[in-house]
Write a structure and sequence with these properties.
Helices cover 62% and strands 0% of the residues. The protein has 285 residues and is mostly helical. Helix 2 packs antiparallel against helix 6, helix 2 packs antiparallel against helix 10 and helix 4 crosses helix 15. The relative contact order is 0.17.
Length: 285
């Protein structure tokens, strides 16, 4: 891949077979977009109730925010940057955690963590969020890069049980899938209450909530699709939109001048952590 003198990728020279996805991953995006992406994923009711009703306490962000953040970001790192062997190892680890996650007779909807169509929706949210933040921070990808990034993002689902043939064939097909399924999303009161706890950083100590809570709520609101913003009862103005655009563009301009290993941090660090934990025989997820 050719780069500019500043080290940023020259989009038009990128070839799909040589695609380096790390050039298009910003470590800061994982934190800017995390809460909004959770809301998108869980706004499909089976996914939402699967998380809220889960009996796997070790995976609950309100009880174990550091561990949950580590396992989520490690999944993203392994799916996007890991090799096939690492993806298989992490799939096995996630499968063990997901095994108890299924609906009961008292659940409002039926769900199973191994449902490939639900995993497709989660992967779609992750891809849409990554693409949206990249474009907000750096501007649109050209078609060659956008197509290569899209093909690579299929790994966000196939690193679990989603079959590759479930991933929409191209970006146009994805956009149709996204529009259709986003319109079906709805946020029930118990799920909305859970979301507000995340948005307001209730899982962290009070000083963290007071320091970062207001900014976190504002950024999360701005990154949500308007339909889900309305479902949450959030307000957003044109002035807010301009301010968020300036913030993300500024961060993107700074990160665009950084070496890839720094720009991708801490996502790449979670991949290194997984490799160390695996070598030492420690639990991966």
């Amino acid at each position: 891949m050719m780069t500019s003198p500043l080290g940023a990728p020259t989009h038009s020279s990128t070839q799909p077979e040589k695609f380096d996805v790390g050039q298009y991953l910003d470590g800061s995006a994982a934190f800017f977009g995390a809460a909004a992406n959770v809301i998108m994923q869980l706004s499909t009711r089976p996914v939402g109730y699967g998380v809220v009703e889960s009996t796997v306490d070790s995976g609950k962000i309100m009880l174990h925010p550091i561990k949950r953040t580590r396992t989520t970001l490690t999944y993203l790192a392994v799916a996007m940057l890991g090799d096939d062997d690492e993806r298989a190892a992490y799939r096995d680890a996630i499968n063990r955690s997901h095994k108890p996650v299924h609906s009961t007779a008292n659940s409002p909807v039926k769900y199973n963590a191994f449902d490939p169509k639900l995993q497709l929706w989660v992967a779609a949210c992750l891809y849409w969020g990554a693409r949206d933040l990249y474009e907000r921070m750096h501007g649109p990808m050209d078609d060659t890069v956008a197509d290569a990034f899209y093909r690579h993002a299929e790994r966000l689902g196939s690193t679990l049980q989603m079959r590759s043939d479930l991933w929409p064939a191209n970006r146009s097909a994805f956009d149709s899938y996204w529009t259709e399924n986003l319109a079906k999303t709805t946020i029930d009161p118990p799920i909305r209450e859970y979301f507000w706890e995340i948005v307001d950083l209730k899982m962290f100590p009070r000083p963290v909530q007071l320091t970062f809570g207001r900014l976190h709520r504002w950024v999360t609101t701005g990154l949500l699709p308007p339909h889900l913003r309305a479902e949450m009862g959030m307000t957003w103005s044109a002035r807010d939109d301009i301010a968020l655009a300036r913030l993300l563009h500024t961060v993107g301009a700074i990160e665009g001048r950084m070496p890839k290993q720094i720009k991708t941090f801490p996502v790449n660090a979670f991949l290194w952590d997984m490799r160390i934990r695996r070598r030492l025989g420690l639990r991966l997820a």
